[in-house]
Design goal:
Elongation Factor Tu (Ef-tu), domain 3; about 25% helix; EC 3.6.5.n1; binds guanosine-5'-triphosphate; Elongation factor 4; 5 domains; GTP-binding; ribosome binding; 8-stranded antiparallel sheet; about 625 residues; Alpha-Beta Plaits; 6-stranded mixed sheet; nucleotide-binding; Rossmann fold
Length: about 625
């Protein structure tokens, strides 16, 4: 192999590694498509819309979940050929950890801002992530074709709110293709070429790893120093495991083998690694016989924020569910699960998700790709509990919360929520936050019209429907960004639900003392609606400890039953519920009672009930 050092150095100067960051829907994927098209990475004819979103589900939902790195070739106006590595990032608040991963592989970021919407919460959050990573930021104002576009105003916003020079922002319309040529030139001129000594021992960062049934584990790496090629023995520095490299290459957008990857490159390595568990994202890859002295510093790991039980409708499918989760995990580093048993539902798993959207995506993939029918219990957060005997435990399943008499203190996760909103809506936003047990922190005017309202809120209150409520209370103008900051003591109680006199563990939930009675009543009346009638009466009760706080009765079967199901507005929560309804009637027999999937999601509706009540 001809590895002329001067040529390699010359090649390194022509590499540009960059990401595109934006608030959701500001046009990141469409811009990526245009760039791919312009660089002829895919011919227009072959190009499916949004080729970077390779999961069917992503395309359907129009959201980007997994990050993808592609290599593009671009002949610039200076006549030289440049090598672009474009790393796509997701925009949804559930997936912000994926953003920080991809940024670690780049020197620059295109910050895309919608010319009509302006800077929003995720624009800021992502811009700060990029600044923290020392990336060169190229501001891009997209959708300038829209009649409501106000590019100059957006330019000012970027300068005022992010503090970067936006006077030379690239004006684009990813829809018409306007400005894309200029954007490509700006990537060449503004994004710095990677540095890193090619002659030093290999030092590469794993920023993603995916399982491929043909190739085994595929490591997506950013090479920082040195060079790697087929036949090398690599070592994963965190666990000292060694593997022989079977292939290296880049995605373009399909996998294309290369002779080597060198300092500055973003590409893949395969090395007959059997399990993704061995390959930690953030780990450093080096050569076994010529290792680097110091590993790279890893970056923030994703941690689940929402937990729910997943049970096969057919108990015989437990192993299938196990296998399916194992396979999904190979592709989804954020997914966590462990076995769990429920008296009511049998054997299943407690699964940790980044948020409700992530939960929804996982459920859909399990059902679609693995053909499983699942019952999912209502989502919960994790609680830190100190028992009277001084023991510290973490509880992510309401059924496992110890008896009140054994609890000294329960702490729940609180987030710092930044809500950006036009001044006119500050009132409704504050009202909503107060209702959700929020504590006001501060409020800043971002410009003449817009305010950044900061609240401390219990994660429990915001995971379900806060975002939807926020949107409806502000005519869609508010944007939200949040992160878990701390755990704080809270007066929480466990609500048990009894059907036919039997406590159903999978229906219990944790609720703040002040809302307990109302929610007890709400859930009971909701369950009364969704539990199908039988030949006998079914008492439905809500209890805190031994105390029954609400009760209702599912009357014995009559012929004219019309189950009144919640229709409601078009929010994510409702879509979730509607989907549960639309699918096959998923039921679980518990004792003599059949419990449908909707019953387990009742707690999502409860919040709605509460909001409606207080909103009246
Ligand atoms: N009018 C107009 N519409 C655009 C333009 N760019 C993108 N859009 C539309 O805006 C919507 C969102 O674009 P996407 O590219 O999917 O946005 P995104 O930021 O990638 O969204 P996520 O992948 O969900 O984070 C789509 O309906 C696009 O067709 C533009 O320049 N002009």
């Amino acid at each position: 192999m001809d590895l002329d050092l001067d040529k390699l150095k010359e090649r390194q100067k022509r590499i540009r590694n960059f990401s595109i960051v934006a608030h959701i829907d500001h046009g990141k994927s469409t811009i990526a498509d245009r760039i791919l098209e312009k660089t002829h990475t895919v011919s227009k004819r072959d190009m499916k819309a949004q080729i970077l979103d390779d999961l069917d589900l992503e395309r359907e939902r129009g959201i980007t979940i997994k990050l993808n790195a592609v290599e593009l070739e671009y002949t610039a106006k200076d006549g030289k050929d440049y090598i672009f590595h474009l790393i796509d990032t997701p925009g949804h608040v559930d997936f912000s950890y994926e953003v920080s991963r991809s940024l670690a592989a780049c020197e620059g970021a295109l910050l895309v801002v919608d010319a009509a919407q302006g800077v929003e919460a995720q624009t800021l959050a992502n811009a700060y992530l990029a600044i923290d990573n020392d990336l060169e930021i190229v501001p891009v104002i997209n959708k300038v074709d829209l009649p409501s576009a106000q590019p100059e105003k957006v330019q000012e916003e970027i300068e005022e709110m992010i503090g970067i020079d936006a006077s030379d922002s690239v004006m684009t319309s990813a829809k018409t293709g306007l400005g894309i040529d200029e954007l490509l030139e700006r990537i060449v001129s503004d994004v710095p070429a990677p540095e890193g000594d090619i002659t030093k021992p290999l030092k590469a960062l794993i920023f993603d790893s995916v399982y491929d049934s043909y190739r085994g584990v595929v490591l997506n790496v950013r090479v920082r120093e040195g060079l790697v090629k087929v036949g090398d023995t690599i070592e994963l520095m965190s666990n000292k495991k060694t593997f022989e490299v079977t292939d290296v290459g880049v995605m373009s957008p399909k996998a294309v083998s290369r002779d080597y990857l060198m300092a500055g490159d973003v590409g893949y390595i395969t090395a007959s690694i059997k399990s993704v568990v061995e390959t930690q994202v953030g780990d450093t890859v080096t050569l076994a016989d010529n290792p680097t002295d110091e590993p790279l510093t890893g970056y923030r790991k994703s941690t689940p924020m929402v937990y729910a039980g997943m049970y096969p409708v057919d108990n015989g499918k437990y192993e299938d569910l196990h296998e399916a989760l194992e396979k999904l995990k190979l592709n989804d580093a954020a997914l966590e699960y462990e076995p769990e048993t429920s008296q009511a539902l049998g054997f299943g798993f407690r699964v940790g998700f980044l948020g409700l959207l992530h939960m929804d995506v996982v459920q859909e993939r399990l059902e679609r790709e693995f053909n499983l029918d699942l019952i999912i219990t209502s989502p919960s957060v994790d609680y830190h509990v100190t028992t009277t005997s001084g023991e510290e435990i973490v509880v992510d399943n309401p059924a496992e919360l110890p008896d009140a008499s054994e609890i000294k203190e329960v702490r729940e996760p609180y987030v710092r929520a930044e809500i950006m909103v036009p001044e006119d809506f500050v009132g409704p936003v504050m009202e909503l936050c107060q209702r959700k047990r929020g504590q006001f922190v501060t409020m800043d005017y971002l410009d003449k019209y817009r305010v950044n309202v900061i609240y401390k809120l219990p994660l429990l209150e915001i995971i379900f429907d806060f975002f939807d409520d926020l949107k409806s209370n502000t005519k869609g103008y508010a944007s939200l960004d949040y992160r878990v900051e701390e755990y704080e003591p809270s007066e929480l109680v466990k609500m048990d639900i009894l059907l036919n006199g039997e406590s159903v563990d999978a229906l219990s939930f944790i609720v703040h003392k002040d809302f307990a009675y109302q929610r007890g009543r709400d859930i009971v009346s909701r369950l009364k609606e969704v539990i199908p009638r039988q030949m006998f009466e079914i008492p439905v009760q809500a209890a805190i400890g031994n105390k029954i706080v609400a009760r209702a009765t599912v009357k014995a079967y009559r012929k004219d039953v019309t189950a009144k199901l919640y229709g409601g507005d078009r929010t994510r929560r409702d879509k979730l519920l509607n989907k549960q309804k639309a699918g096959k009637k998923r039921m679980k027999e518990v004792g003599k009672v059949s419990i449908p999937q909707e019953a387990f999601m009742s707690v999502l509706n409860l919040n709605k009930g509460q909001t409606d009540d207080s909103g009246k």
